[in-house]
Structure formats: C-alpha cells, structure tokens
Amino acid sequence: MRNFVVFFMILSLSIGAQSQKRAMIKGDYVDQAVQRHHANPPLHQDEVSKPAFPVLPKSYLAQEEEQIGTTIYDLQSNSLLGNRIHLFSDGTLGAVWTFGLETPPNFPDRGTGYNYYDGSDWGPMPVTRIESIRTGWPSYAPYGEDGEIVASHDFTNGSITTLHRETKGAGSWIEWTPIAGPDNHDISWPRMTTSGVDHEIVHYVYTTWPVANGGTVYNGMDGALLYSRTSDGGATWDYLNVQLDGTTITNYNSLSADEYTWAEPRGNTIAFVCADAWHDMFVMKSADNGDNWEKIMVWEHPYPFFDWNVTITTDTLWCPDMSADIAIDNTGKVHLVCGISRVAHFEVGTTYQYWPFTDGIAYWNEDMLPFTAPDQHDALDAWDVLIEDVNLIGWTQDINNNGVIDLLPDIMSYRELGISTMPNISVCADNDLIVTFSASTEGYDNGTYNFKHVWVRGFENENDDWLDFYDLNTDLIHIFDECIYPVMAGSANDYFHVIYNADAEPGTALDEDHAYIENKIYYSRMLLSDIGLNTIIGTDENVSSIEMMSGNYPNPFSTNTTFRVTTTSKTSLRLEVYNVTGRKVKEVDRGIADRGVHLIDLSADGLAPGIYLYKVISGKESVNGKMMVE
Known about the structure:
Radius of gyration: 24 Å
Strand content: 35-45%
Low-confidence stretches: 1-16, 45-62, 537-544
Number of helices: 2
Mean pLDDT: 88
Structural class: mainly beta
CATH architecture of the largest domain: 7 Propeller
Number of strands: 39
Shape: globular
C-alpha cells in the first residue's frame, strides 16, 4: 500500500544536492540472484516489508519541466538509449519517442511521437504518429540548413523508413524510399545521425532480424550490424548495408537490437558504441564522416563468440548491464558511460542468472586504458577495476544519510538490468560533461518496488572533478512515478535538456510487468550553474548586463508585443511571463545574445485576456514589469 504520510511530511524537510559519498547496499540483498530469460526484441505485439523512509527530499532547484507527449506503448528501447532529442544552435529543440495509444497489445497506430520547442513553447502533445505506416524506434537529427530528419523501422516490410522536412517544426514531412536489407534480409532497430556542414550526410546503423524474430542468418551471424550512408537524401548511397571491419562473424556470433547508439558528431568525427552483457563493449569511430573506421575496445568479453546453446560460464561475470551511451567532446575525444551488472550462464539455453542489486554507472574516455587492459581483470570487475569518481561515477543515493541504501527487497529490472541504469552523457561548450541515469531511489515506493528517478551529475573538466548528484524528480507530481528512459540532447547551452518516460507502475506492460497504462513523456531542463557547472564560454553570468530595457509595445496587446533590450556584454537573454498567481505560462529564450540592442517578440497565443507579470533576465540581472492582454 502506498505510503501517503509523505504528503503530510513533505513540507518538513528540504534537501538539495546529494553528496558524492557512496553508501553500500545491504549484503544479503547484494548476494541475491534472480533467474530470467534473455528477451527477444519485439516485432509484432501479438507475439509478445520495510516501510519507505517517510520524509522525501524536495530539491531547492527550480528545474523547468513540461509534459510534451503521451504513449501507452511503453518499451522505448531493448538496450541503449540516445538519438531522440536535439538542441539546435538557435535554442530550439526537437524530440521523438515510440508512440502508440490504440488497442494494445497490437497498437495499429504505433509510430513516431514528435514535438518541437520553438524557443518559447513546446507544441501541443501529438495524438498521431508522423509516419503514414506503422513504425517504431525513431532516431532524430538536424538535416539541411534548418531542417530535421527522423528514421524508424517498418516492421511489416522489414525496412528502414526516413522522413525529413526542410524547416524544423513546420511543413509536411517528405518520405524517402525505404532502406531494404541485403539479399531480402529484414532489417530493424535503426539509429541515425547526421554530419557535414549542413547536416546533409546521413548515417544509419541497424541490425538484421535474428532467427528468434523470424529472420535468417546473414553472413554467418544471427543478427548482423549494418551501416549505411547517404549524402543526397537517399537518391544514392555512399555505403549501403555494409558490415564494418571488427563487427563481422570473425568477431561475433551476433549483434542484436538496440545494442548501439550514436554520439552527436563533432565536425567530421562520428562514433557509435556497441555494448551488451554477452559480447564486447566497443566504440566504432571515424574522423572522416564514415569513410574509414577505427574499432576501440572498451571491455573485452571473457567468453568470445558467446553462444546461448554452447557457452557455459565458470563463474559470475561483471559486465555492462545492457545500457550505455557515448559522446564526443569538442576536441574529438570519445566519452562513454554504461550501467554495470553481474550475470552468469550456468546451463545451455536462454535462461541466465543476474544479481539485481548490483549498482553502478561506469565511465571511460579515450585517455583511459580499456577495462580489460593488462594488469586489470578478465572482465569488468567492479571490485577490482572501478574507482569512485574516476571510472565509477554513478550509484544509488543514500538519501536519509544513514550509511546504508534502504531499498525494498524486490527490484524491478528492465532489459537494462541495473539498479542504476540507462545512463546518458552530454557535452558542454568547455568540455564539461553531464551524465543522467535512472536509479531506484530511497523513500519513493509503491509498497513492493522502489520507484526509479532520473539523476544527474556534472563533471568539471578544468578541475577534473565529478560534482554532486541531483534528483530531477523530487516534485510532488512525481511522488508515485517510475521515471525511466532518460535521453539527453548531445550538447548543452546554458541548460542541459532531457526527455524521459514516467508512469505509475515500475516495469513495462510490453514485458507483462503490469497492465497497459498511460506513460507521460516529460521534457526537463536545468541550468548548468544549478548543478555546479559553468555556462557557455564567452558569457559572464555575474556581470550587470542590462543597460536599458523599455516596456513592451504595444501594451495592452491582443496579438503580438515587443520588448527592446540593450545589453552591455555577451550574455544569456530570456523573457519569462507569469500569470497573477505566480505560475510561469510562457517563455522566450534567446540563448546567448551578443552585446547590443535586441528585440524580443511575444505572441499572445495561449494567453487569456488579463494582467500578466514579466521578467526579462540577462545574466544575473533581471527587469520586472506588468502587461495586459486584451
């Protein structure tokens, strides 16, 4: 039964950041093993004790959050996340997710849910997919001078579908000729990104269907990873259905759905990570937009060519928990994060054991040795290799500061296995890093399972320092929410930007953990300064930067009004609008503004007639005023 005492006690204590100090999970929990079956990636859906700590931490941080979509179809990935939200240089954003509302479990309306932030507002929550056919597993990226592109897969035809439009947030989507698999092999689970001066070079990775999903073996592999690239909108292909060196039957028996994700490209440098508990974790990196590739081993599996029907492990195995993410900083260096797990395969077949209370987010970059380098261990061994605040940078937090992680005895795991799992990583202009992950959290539970929350932590590059942890879900609206599948934009401005799923039940309906229910897609952003990081290079948040600010004209207004602001330095600039109850109802974010005169236009769309308060914020300075909508 849910513990409603929290509603009465929530006001009695406020807690902000959590310190870096790590507490241990109870030993008897850590040693509990659970048996489960290796889950096949979904195709058609018809196949398919101790009371909580009563005082909940409520952050003093006023991060901004908004629901931008909904879905009942709730499996957003079989493994890795990423490539679903992009921050454009003008401060606008686009976001996608797998969407489906109609008649589960078949979901005839399933496809890409899409929303766009125009610098002031997100659009209305979508009620239909953007494709004309049933699809799933979208990726999103910029395309052309001011456009956008989405790639997803068409299950019916076993192909990859692509849509683009020339102006982001507006106009009709243009559908490309689908990518067909080689030699009539079905393909699915795409990840897509773009590079080039105008993002005109489109890169895809995806896999052939494994036998368990009705596919056939391709070039000896029961699930082969393929790469394609086009520079002219799919009219011709520079590379089509190519197996990159280092990813063939010479290296692996299979590479499967969603075990890979792209970093946001930096110039001509592109990279993706491939990670799983049952094969190597490695990076494929190219410095010339995909013409030549380097394979970088991060963690070498101690059982090469793992085969469910043959391979038996002689002991437990520390490994990636089937979640990971990758980023490229502004020097071209690759950074990687992954959840960690402990598994064993003691008998042939797809049943295996894992230890659900294994906890941790591992970190690696190209300046570090691989986890399996000489003098280390023959697997990613959390006890022998991982060092706190060096290559172990995330874990479940001791919110009540009693030195022990107090969780209920049952853990809801996903296809990603860890208590702390589903990490994402983003890069700031000065090569600071932000990492988010989803972690089972003390004090939030439904009586059976602790809810997962989205946590964030920054890395200060200049001082080589991992900073405090912050919980993004301490607001009362999330008191009984399972918050999972966080995906960050690959870059940050003055804010980092993340989307995630939230619903009332741990687990997924698709995996039969609970009945189908509504999942809310949230967008959240937080100032870098609120998690201890600097803002964009070239700005000074501490100076007094507003030299002159006129009131809005016209005032009153019924359609549009304009604010004239003169700044004395390069700085952040935004307008916030509040109703008379103090609730923020609108915002226009101009991002980083140069010194000089700026006009901020505000539309009356969505504002009911009446009196409103406004705040123009430049750096650390703000000017307040009042206006009227007729």
